[in-house]
Structure formats: structure tokens, C-alpha cells
Cytochrome bc1 complex cytochrome c subunit
Amino acid sequence: MKKLSARRRHPLAALVVLLLALACTGGLYAVFAPADKAKAEATAQSLTIDEGKKLYTVGCASCHGTGGQGTSDGPSLVGVGAAAVDFQVATGRMPAATSQGAQLPRKKAIYSQAEVDQLAAYIASLGAGPSIPTADQYGPEGADIGKGGDLFRNNCAQCHNFTGKGGALTGGKYAPPLNDVAPKHIYEAMQTGPQNMPSFPDTTMSEQNKRDIIAYLGAVNTGKTVNPGGTSLGGLGPVSEGLFAWIFGLGALIAVAVWVAARTAKARKS
């Protein structure tokens, strides 16, 4: 009896019980706490999609179909992704006006950003597509402005001009100016290729390259760049520069030619 009593009173027994209790508590927390968090996130996402569906039914379904399948008045939205919705709706291009021109112009947005996010979540639920980029993807940190300039001139300047001032296209269409466009929307445009613009997914143009281009546009449109050749003439490129050369350069040559001819004629008379 004395031996059994001593075993029950062993000083390590309480420590073992305490360790077992802590292990059980930690295990239960690890099992149930993440599940509760994931469940809460899933519930919040489901509510966002439901609200987006309500907005879609009222403002978009008449053209794009009740399930985003598209109609004769609007293309299918299945698989376009959240980024396309954020770009089109947040820049006011959508909803489109009843009588539109050759392409959808940028105008004041009628939805708040929260509503845009809800619409984007609903459209994303219809089919996988590019997601809305984060600030880490389009922010200036780690961007190479010089490389961005090279990329822009090789891939974008043909339509948007050398410094993003915009330009005319065929059939009354145009490449819009980029001087006052939010970096997020520039990234989304490259990712999704809205309207006449080709798309540049990450498989074609990396995330870093997109960041470089956005940084370049930010530099040339905020007056932080230096023009070693003189005035930038508005940054409009070869058209304005050629016109300047034609008027002043050729005009000066003509004036010199007239002066020389006049002096030669005067010398002959003498």
C-alpha cells in the first residue's frame, strides 16, 4: 500500500498531466480555428458574389444575358475575369451609353469601388480569368524606368504615342491618353486587352515588365524626366517635331535662299 501511494504522489505526474492538457488544447485550436476563419472568409465572399449578382441583374443583364452568356447587344462575360470588370466599370466605360461611337470612351463611374468589387466577384464566379492586381504588382518599388521606356516604345508607342499622349486609329477609333490613368487600370488594360488593344498576359509580358512600363509612364507624365535635346514639344512625337522642323527649319532655309538670290542679283546689277 505504501508503494502504491508513493507512486500516485510522484511529482512528475502533475507535470505530465499539464503537458497533455496543453497539447490537447493546442491541437484543438489548430484544427478548429483555421476552419472557422476559412468558413468566415467563404461566407463573406459568397455575400459579395450575391450582392454583385443583384447589381448585375439590374445594370448589366439586359445586354450581357442573365448568366453572363452574352447577347446580340453585348459579349459574353464568362471567363473575362475580375480585372476586366474593374477596368471597364471603374473607368466609367461600362455601363455603355445607348448610342455609342466607334469605341467606349472613359467617363465618370456610376458605381462605387465597393460595388465594382462586388460586380467583379460575381463575374469571376462565372469563369476563371485575370484577377484584380494588387499594389505590389503595379507599384513603383523595384521598377526600372529606363527598361520600361524601351518596352513601351517597342510595344505601345505605335498607338499611344511615345509618352502616352494617345493617338488616332482607323475607323474613328483611338488609343486613349495615359497621362491621368491610375496605375492599376494601366496594369489591367495590359492584362486584359480592352477594346482595340491587344492583351499582354504574364506569359507574354511579365509582371515586372508591366511594372516597368507603368513606372515609365508615371515619370514622363509627372515632369520628372529631362529632355537633353531641348523642349519636348508636348511629348507628341514625330508629328509635332516634324511640323516644327518643316515650319522653322525649312522656312529658315528658304529665307536664306531668298537672301542669297537677292544679294546675287544686286551684285550682278552693280
Summary: The chain has a mean pLDDT of 84. The CA atoms of residues 44 and 157 lie 42 Å apart. The chain has eleven helices and two strands. Residues 12-59 form the longest helix (48 residues).
